[in-house]
Amino acid sequence: TLLMMLCMGTTQAATTLQSGLYRLTSGRGTNNVMTVNSAGKLITAKQDTNILKQGWIITSAGGTYKVRNAGNALYAQNVSTVYANFTTAANAATFYIRQNTTVTSGTYFNICNNNTFTGTQCMHEDAGGQVVPWSPSTTATPSGTEWICKKVTNFTTAQIKDYLKTISGYASAEDGKIYRIISPTYQLAMS
User: Fold this and answer.
1) pTM of this structure
2) pLDDT of residue 190
3) Angle at Cα 69 formed by Cα 51 and Cα 42, nearest 5°?
């Protein structure tokens, strides 16, 4: 039986990413994690487990995902222009996440604009630490388009809610209620 397994090879069962709070580490070899800068652009930086902007709330629904930054409460947006940064905004964009089973050195995921995981549609750490669209790795070696998705355990749900209340300026928000968010600068409501 062992000889048959060696001759036939083994296949890796794909892992599905569950909803949760994650730190996304690039497969590029830098050990950088995905974060967001003050302009709302997705970048990578050295890991600091005390920075909430290095955490991502990933929500799964029916084979699609929403990717939301835990530090600024904004959602990652779809980008398909090569070398253009992925950004964040108030409205949730739809992403597709799958384990890249071609990569054999660990459990890596691709986060893409499309469900075919082809073309330059996936989040990729480039040489400058920008997160831009690129193609997934087709070899056993991970690239900047593969991400290790590790659950964040040093922040509780209550801490994140408190932080989001603080940055929103509305400290008495309650679960299950509907609120209107008005820009203090423009006096316009979000839609």
Assistant:
1) 0.81
2) 65
3) 90
